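Q: We require from you a single protein entry containing the residue sequence and its fold in token form, and nothing else.
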Amino acid sequence: MWMKFALNIAPHKECDMKHDISGINFNSIGQILLDYVCWVLHEAQRQGISKLYFLARDGYLLYRIADKICRKKSIPIEC
């Protein structure tokens, strides 16, 4: 559920999350990605890193999550 909050994504109104496989993937993979980005941000702060780069299209979703978290929590890391 944090992923939806972090990215301001609302499920499609006609989507029944109980029967939709994409909903299952979103809820499980989304939480894993959010936890991973939180860990990356924590490690960056611990190591004094002030700028993170997310490369290629594979890193775009991670970038969006990290950017939203940093803005919302006023974390001094540039993404």
The radius of gyration is 14 Å. The longest helix spans residues 21-46. The mean pLDDT is 78. Residues 30 and 38 are 12 Å apart (CA to CA).
